[in-house]
Amino acid sequence: MMNLKLTVASFCLITSVFSAQVKDTLAEKMMVYQLPNGGWGKHNSDKKNVDYALKIDSKLLKIIKANDNNLATIDNNATSKEINALIKAYSVTKNPAYLKSAEKGIQYLLSMQYENGGFPQYFPNKSIYRKQVTYNDNAMINVLTILHHISEEKEGFDAVNSQLKDKSKVALQKGIVCVLKTQVVQKGKLSIWADQYNEVTLVPEKARAFEPMSLATGESVNIVKFLMMQTVTPEIEKSIKSAIQWFKESKIEGYTYNTSRESEKAIRILSKKEGSAVWARFYDIPSNKPVFGDRDGSVKFNYEDVSEERRMGYSWYNEAGTKLIESDFPKWLKKNKISQ
């Protein structure tokens, strides 16, 4: 009997050691690129988005080793992408190094949250628009989704230590309060959300020269989807229903927006299509008219007036509101037994 117990114990020990040594190629590279403060940058040494399928970028490695925490960001899925991937790698391999790296990344996210619940695009880098509360490219919503998964112990995040779970629950609720507070009011009615906000006043602000202060449809779709994941409160129900109503009233019917490529050049075309609908990327807050920005900082209300470089180099329309209205919203109503 004793020999059997020893055999079982030995097997468990060997399995544990083996599991700790199992490696995931992408996760290994992510740990190499992690900054001292726990975050990740978004670019390689050629100023392109980091591609973990490529070999280690020696130039970027030198920058990282120089402890440049100012590179840390949640823009372009940076940091949230790595945390999600490391948690997934840990779930498969049980390599504790991946969990430790992910937890360090989560701690970074918690450290960058403002007291008002918002998250800046970069931290600790506060230059230009990087300190603003940022929904652009789903930056803040990516973070809040991670905090949601930690709080609910879903998607492999049940492995995270209890201290981080407790802190994440608090941070999530603060974030939800910020989301509800930043929903823009137009003529006394809740509409949708802007891309970026002043980190103190939570008033919408412009970002890059071609990104005017405005309502942002693509990001707002994902904000609504995030709110649909949460326990329904009167405030959340009102927020979602108001946003859906705005999308219904603001769609541009009879058009589609297609993107194709000719070599390296993107071709973006707004064309008529019966039965289809699009939304402009940005809407002017006072007038609710589609609005477009240009490299020189000018604001235009006619798509054709935008320079060709910006018309072809930026997505000015999207169709994301269609699925939100026709599929996601009815499912949410039914799931929560809410009348329309």
List the helices and strands and how they pair.
Elements: H1 2-21, H2 25-33, H3 58-65, H4 80-93, H5 96-112, E1 133-134, H6 139-152, H7 162-181, E2 185-186, E3 189-190, E4 196-197, E5 204-205, E6 215-216, H8 217-228, H9 234-250, E7 252-262, E8 265-280, E9 282-283, E10 292-293, E11 299-300, H10 308-313, E12 317-318, H11 320-335
Antiparallel strand pairs: 1-4, 2-3, 4-5, 6-9, 7-8, 8-12, 10-11
Helix pairs in contact: 4-5, 5-7, 6-7, 8-9, 8-11
Structure in words:
The strands form five sheets. Strands 1-4-5 form a three-stranded antiparallel β-sheet, with no helix packed on it. It has a three-stranded antiparallel β-sheet with strand order 7-8-12. It has 340 residues and is an alpha+beta fold. It is built from eleven helices and twelve strands. It is 45% helix and 14% strand. Helix 8 (217-228) packs antiparallel against helix 9 (234-250). The protein has helices at residues 2-21, 25-33, 58-65, 80-93, 96-112, 139-152, 162-181, 217-228, 234-250, 308-313, 320-335; strands spanning 133-134, 185-186, 189-190, 196-197, 204-205, 215-216, 252-262, 265-280, 282-283, 292-293, 299-300, 317-318.
| Biggest sheet features | 3 strands, antiparallel
Please write the string of helix (H) and strand (E) elements.
HHHHHEHHEEEEEHHEEEEEHEH
Radius of gyration from CA coordinates: 23 Å
Gross morphology: globular
Number of helices: 11
**Major beta sheet, strand line-up:** 1-4-5
Low-confidence stretches: none
**What gap, in angstroms, lies between the N and C termini?**
66 Å
Percent strand: 5-15%
Class from helix and strand fractions: alpha+beta
State the helical fraction: 40-55%
Mean of residue pLDDT? 92
